[in-house]
Amino acid sequence: MFSNSNKLTRAEKALILGFIAGSRENPHPEHGPIITIKLNEAEEIYPAPNGLQHKVIGETYFQMNYDTGDYKKLKKIRPITK
Fold first, then answer.
1. Phi and psi dihedrals of 15, rounded to 5?
2. Of the four, 45, 51, 66, 73, which is 20 to 30 A from 16 by CA?
């Protein structure tokens, strides 16, 4: 998960590893129980509904829920604006 992470800081990596290891003390309770950290951002080729392909920015996030202990990876696609 961390090998392709080009947006992750050392502190964020430590936070994720601690969460996965079982630490449920929210370091930022003022932001609520769900913390989302950006792992990666890169240009990608994405198929359009019309069959063509276009370049987009693909963003990968890691989301932790301190209330439930659940975590998941999220992928978001956004268009490249020029």
1. -65, -45
2. 45
Q: Which residues of the chain have pLDDT under 70?
A: 82
Residue 1's pLDDT is 78
19-48 burial, b at 16+ Cβ within 10 Å, e below that, comes to beeeeeebeeeeeeeebebbbbbeeeeeee
Type of residue numbered 75? K
Task: Compute CA distances 7 → 38, 61, 67, 70, 82, whole Å.
Answer: 6, 10, 25, 22, 22
Apex 66 CA angle, 31 and 73, nearest 5? 90
The number of angstroms, rounded, from the C-alpha of 61 to the middle of its chain's C-alpha atoms is: 1
Residue closest to 74 by CA, chosen among 65, 31, 46, 27: 65
pLDDT score at 46: 86
